[in-house]
Amino acid sequence: MHPNPIFRKTDQARNIAFAREQGFGLLAVGTEGAPLISHVPFLLSEDGAVAEFHLVRSNPIVRLMSDTLPARLAVQGPYSYVSPDWYEIEDQVPTWNYVAVHLVGQIAPRPQADLHDMLDRQSALFEDRLLPKAPWTSAKMTPQLMERMMHQIVPCRMQVTGIDGTWKLNQNKDDAVRLRAADRVEAAGQGAGTAVLASLMRQPPQ
Length: 206
What we know:
With about 210 residues, the protein is an alpha+beta fold. The protein has helices spanning about 10-20, 60-65, 115-130, 145-150, 175-190, 195-200; strands at about 25-30, 35-40, 45, 50-55, 70-80, 95-110, 155-170, 190. Strands 1, 2, 3, 4, 5, 6, 7 and 8 form an eight-stranded antiparallel sheet that branches. The longest helix has 14 residues, at about 115-130. The protein starts with 11 loop residues before the first helix and ends with a helix. The mean pLDDT is about 95.
């Protein structure tokens, strides 16, 4: 995470809410070589203590989880390039603004019997965001096919022991400078979720 404490003042409740809302991240574990990384949807408990997800059975991370395994789940939010010209003051350099929250803890496989319930809760969460579309449920699947597909994935759980958030939103600039940059970030659209990022730049966490 970014070492400058001015970008890390967000309270844990907001970090947890952000990670829960995103529900998708990069799961990283260490090896003797390069770290292993998987892109995973996940469910995070309201208190941020437990993250649930699944991995394809053939994933190398699964083979490392004979018991518990240290891991980091990095959750990326909106981001954008920021041109120094947008500040309209001298002697500035390019940068990127972004929001990211990292969950650190121990991951472990769960009993296969837990999988169906977890998948149902996960799909219900994301289907609810598509209302008024009629929600998809696993009941629409042929039971035998559903069982066969579930056999190919493994339910996992992370016991979260640490949460760090970086909300890099030009808090190190004067208000007028930061607001000018926010307007230009939104207009340029050079990143992901730039309208959301610009809104956060206008009212950064205190």
